[in-house]
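ligand=guanosine-5'-triphosphate
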Amino acid sequence: MQAVIIAGGLGTRLRPLTFNRPKALVPLLNRAQVLHILDRLPKEIDEVLVAVNYMFDRVRDFFREADVGRTVQVIEEPTPLGTGGAVKNVAARLHGTFAVYNGDVIDSLDFTKFLAFHRRRGGPATLALYEVPDPSAFGVVGMEGSRVTRFVEKPAPGEAPSRLINAGHYLFEPEVLDEIPAGREVSMEREVFPALAARSLHGFPFDGYWSDAGTLEGYLNATRILLANGGAAVHPRAKLAKARLDGAVLVPEGAEVSGRLGPDVVLGPRSRVDSATVSNSVLLDGASIEAGAVVRGSIIGEDSSVGPGATVEDSIIGDGVRVRKARRVIQERMA
Ligand code: GTP
């Protein structure tokens, strides 16, 4: 069976990190985000098409080097065609029932059960659904039994038909491709699903975990989930001196830590924490946090530094940035 991973968006909500790399290659637990998706694809999927517009060359080159144990074709989309148009763009390569995965979600969906459900219902399309406390930032469905009868993208306050959201995984029969107009930008969420819901669309709720990883909050939540599900580790050759580790952390070989780390912290290789306090944050490769600094709820880009006594909170610091001594950066994007 084939799967299409739609991984070609601009990733504006993770800027400035996505100025320098496509979202699919933003590291999550020190591995490109798209690899976490490939890891969870079951053996039934023997061919993967990765649909990319933004930074196509980077994604193509990445898959030329990475050995992921199955056939991956990276398909260029000359102009951004949206989440629906991206699938239509690869239509000629698809045959039989196929899966579509958004490139920026982390979850525990059991694909085998999802596929069995889709086959039992026998409809043209099935969406995986996940229940969240506040669905307002997502695509929300109204259900009758196992049928999705309404699909509302980012509903206004009080308008959400349920708390079940589109988890970003679909199973389609080829006839769904006829529903997607060719040659223009098409949103799966705003055009294709509302139209299918009026005719035949099924929903498969699953539980376990799910997180979008395309916003700062989602990215840190996905990090926390992955740490809690086997990703936490301290490499025996990491350099720890007067370090206090609290809760789940990932400290790879080559990282150096003194000070307080955790909970929910990932250090990149070559990153350094020097008598500082870091919690609920990710340091990419080569990032350093100087003495007395505090970093919370943030991503620190490659080779960036947070100066002595500085504070960074709820912010994304791009690559190669110097946050000056004693500066306070709160809810900012620094490039
Ligand atoms: P934002 O700019 O932050 O909204 O991110 P995004 O552009 O990636 O959009 P969004 O998170 O809504 O996209 C969901 C998934 O679809 C992601 O995996 C995107 O990479 C992918 N995607 C969005 N738009 C396109 C597109 O025009 N072409 C392709 N191939 N993929 C897309």
